[in-house]
């Protein structure tokens, strides 16, 4: 069977390989054909909500209800942190910043992985609304987050500052 609908995530390699996330898993499509990775291939189930190909060529998949996975060879392995007992099983956005840090938008806030150490940016760090739906790095290296109930935030130096008024978000 092919990719099941809905398609919920896309990523691409420099060589033209397309990665497709859906309710059925992750499908890799290249000039040699397609391969779908499912529960039997290490994915624990749950919708694939986001995909990322990092600079080292690792494929990351964030899922709804099962956390973060990374592809090793031809099998996915669970790679979900438990940070300060926050809910990290729902990974909805991913970013690799220019320093190689991995950022996870979760329903427990924003999580940064730097050299294998996980740090949460949540309400205590100024993030309003803990479901971090979108994460982006601008040309100046600043990390921006869109959060449910909190809108737009700028996160620098371990703090998140709401930017809704400045950019007239929600008005």
Descriptive notes:
It contains 1 helix and 16 strands. By secondary structure, it is mostly beta strands. A 4-stranded antiparallel sheet has the order 1-2-3-4, with no helix packed on it. A 4-stranded antiparallel sheet has the order 5-6-7-8, with no helix packed on it. A hairpin with a 5-residue loop joins strand 1 and strand 2. The longest helix is centred in the last third of the chain and has 4 residues. The chain is globular and about 50 Å long. The mean pLDDT is 88.
- In DSSP terms, counting alpha (H) and pi (I) runs of 4 or more, how many helices? 1
Query: Which consecutive residue ranges, at least 5 long each, have pLDDT under 50?
Result: none
Broad shape: globular
SSE order, one letter for each helix or strand? EEEEEEEEEEEEEEEEH
Mean pLDDT: 88
Kindly provide the radius of gyration, computed on alpha-carbon positions and rounded to a whole number of angstroms: 16 Å
Backbone structural class: mainly beta
What separation lies between the terminal Cα atoms? 45 Å
Largest sheet at a glance?
A: 4 strands, antiparallel
Task: Please provide the count of β strands.
Answer: 16
List the defining traits of the structure above.
171 residues; mainly beta; 50% strand
Can you give me a brief rundown of this structure?
With about 170 residues, this protein is mainly beta. It has one helix spanning about 165; strands spanning about 5-10, 20, 25-30, 35, 50-55, 60-65, 65-70, 75-80, 90-95, 100-105, 110-115, 115-120, 130-135, 145, 150-155, 160. It is built from 1 helix and 16 strands.
């Amino acid at each position: 069977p092919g990719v099941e609908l809905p398609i919920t995530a896309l990523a691409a390699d420099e060589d033209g390989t397309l990665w497709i996330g859906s309710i059925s898993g992750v499908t890799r499509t290249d000039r040699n054909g397609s391969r779908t990775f499912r529960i039997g291939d290490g994915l624990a189930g749950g919708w694939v909500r986001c995909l990322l190909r990092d600079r080292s060529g690792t494929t990351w998949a964030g899922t709804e209800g099962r956390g973060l996975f990374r592809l090793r060879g031809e099998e996915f392995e669970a790679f979900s942190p438990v940070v300060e007992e926050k809910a990290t099983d729902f990974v909805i956005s991913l970013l690799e910043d220019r320093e190689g840090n991995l950022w996870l938008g979760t329903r427990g806030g924003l999580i940064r992985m730097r050299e294998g150490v996980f740090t949460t940016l949540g309400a205590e760090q100024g993030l309003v609304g803990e479901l971090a739906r979108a994460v982006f790095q601008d040309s100046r290296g600043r990390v921006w987050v869109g959060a449910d109930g909190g809108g737009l935030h700028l996160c620098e130096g371990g703090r998140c500052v709401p930017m809704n008024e400045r950019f007239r978000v929600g008005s």
